[in-house]
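Lab notebook: predicted structure, single chain.

Context: the supervisor wants predicted structures on file for every construct in the current expression panel, including those that have not yet been purified. This is the next one on the list. No modifications to the sequence; it matches the entry in the shared construct table.
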Amino acid sequence: MTSSIPEDALGEFERQSEVGQVSRPGRCDYDAVKQVYTIAGANNWGKQDAFHFVWKRIKGNFIVTMRAEFIGAGVNPLRKLGWMARSSLEDNSTYVSPAIHGDGRIALQFRREAGGPTEEIWATLSMADVIQLERKGNSYTMSVARFGEPFEMVRASEIYLEEEIYIGLFVCAHENELIEQAIFRDVRIVRPVKDGFERGKDPFGSHLEILDIASGHRQIIYSAEHVFEAPNWTRDGKALIFNQDGRLYRFDLAMGTPSLIDTGVVVKNNNDHVLSSDGSRLGISSHGEEDGLSRVYTVPLQGGKPKLVMPKGPSYLHGWSPDGKFLVYTGQRNGQYDIFRVPVEGGEEEQLTNTPGLDDGPEYTPDGRYIYFNSVRTGGMQVWRMRPDGSRQEQLTDDEYNNWFPHISPDGKLVVFISYLVGEVAPSDHPAAKRVYLRTIPLDGGKPKVLAYLYGGQGTMNVPSWSPDGRRLAFVSNTVPSR
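Prediction complete. Output recorded below exactly as produced.
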């Protein structure tokens, strides 16, 4: 049985159904404000299925991610929740499903042939609440984590589902006469880019998201079937500034709409823009018409005539000192990328780093005592810091990930940054359309905590993205548009 409720009542999904014969029908309730699904369902398992399924149709490869938890203690320890990818809604369909059981155990379950037995591969991790399923051809990868920790991955190959399948969420009680309930948050359905993807030519969509630091819950506040990038929060907390097609836009949080910021003849802006400490001006980087090199400018926040601050290029702006006196940026000089600062009103630049390899992403702490940046000097891309004059350079992260663009919380206690997963990129590269984490550490270093699991990279969080009260982050995630 398939429900006939309106599509927009199910968020990301098209319909909900009972798969197989169930004694008690399930249901899905969707909170569109919180973007949360509450699903109830019963189940039998084996060669035939019986459960409640909330789904949509999708073709080709995908990456689907969510956070979930059961409501209540439950009855049967084999009760399950998770993602489900099925060839059909028949009860004996081929399928793949990462499933979290009521006792905390986790398995990648699958049926290779219609009417065949259910096979499973168990994860070593238990009690996870973040579940991801990735399809790449006929290979399926389950990634699971306890929120805040990195993924553990389990893979199964040579599973031949249809090209167009049903993908969705399910809950099952493992008892025909019972109903179990679960809550699903941060549900994301991503269509990854094709091989040979060209960002400037191929379709590529964007979601503007806000993340609550305390809970880790995310909310999409704006989406488009084109690229926009790198949101700053204005000092009054009322708007976000992002770039799109070389122009800057102000996104009014109350109205939910973007409006163009006038930057005069400077119309090839990249995603390196910052606000002055008093919130009255924007520092921007823009590429020249004749030579294509990025240079540094300032412009009034409401728009106006830009002022050229650093005529040397390429120069990519990243930070504005809290006393309002200096801009810090990455510049290529003599074939090497290092970090420099220059007086806001213009003048001679001062070189702050001088090491082989890329130094990038400089940003001041709110008290002005440090500049944080990322550097590849020890092999992988890691987070570093130094004094404002370039002295006392020290490494703060040292792990298997490539870590980019550290941003310091307004209270000066936390640092958030982007981490590319292992094997995704070369250390000096930060492209879009990759699996990444947003992670955080205390200001003086420590064990990183994952704040978000997403598909993004370049343009996700290149600029300072904290809300003025330090409670939220703004960032951009990506997907290929469905049309």
